[in-house]
Amino acid sequence: MEVLQLLISGISQGCVYGLIALGFVLIYKATEMVNFAQGDIMMLGAYVAITFISLWEVPYYWAVPATILVMATVGVILERVLLRPMIGEPHFAVLMLTIGLGFVLRALAGAIWGNEPRALPMPYVGDVLRLGEVVIGYENLAIILGTALLCLLMWLFFSFTRIGIAMQAASQNQLAAFYVGIPVKRMFSLVWALSAAIAALAGILTAPVSLVDPLIGFVGIKAFAAAIVGGFGSMPGAIIGGLLVGVVEQFAGLYLPPGFSDMSAYVLLLVMLVIRPQGLFATMQKKKV
Description:
Blueprint: H1 2-31, H2 38-55, H3 60-83, H4 91-113, E1 128-131, E2 134-137, H5 138-160, H6 162-172, H7 174-179, H8 184-206, H9 219-230, H10 235-255, H11 260-275
């Protein structure tokens, strides 16, 4: 039963890593940029949710979609103001820009909300589901079910909607997409909006489990490792990689000496780079632009 309990906890944590990793992959597939501020965007989304629910006392069923909408708007603003002018610049310059953006977001969060950890009160916090000797907190169950629902919606969106198909076309071949009338730059803005919205959802789901502070965004480093483990061009790989990192982290924390839990994600990354550098789902391919 201990193993099953650890497995459920690992899956719950891994879903958070997977959602952030999904944001990495979406932006990379569309723009070939790596957004190292993705974890900090998740942190900002959690603070926006806290503002709506705790400070303004907005009902949670209105606060959650409002938070996602606000963060989608933030994603569009970041793409248009900061990232669009960087198209064509060296990848290192874009990398440094997103790292700097992370520092700015952390400082901004500290200035607005303070550096003291804050909790996000949700109606299901504290309740548990008992399956024999296994106890599952409703917070963990919400993370798992929320991630599963999001994956289903993402699959439907990219498979059956015109915008989703257009976004895929623009990510695969920008020039061909432009020639057939797809507004490529607008698709890039939508990708950033979607990535920020997913990060906001990750922040909303994880906030009831762990307190929110400006440094919580560093979880994005583990999510980046998860994205590489799964295959940096694969959306299913991002989720699978996140689950692997989360499960390995939980088991390492129990069965290995202290300190190995935090290292496990990077050890898994190094092993994957040695054994299969392209990741579990190797879908990265050269784009024609």
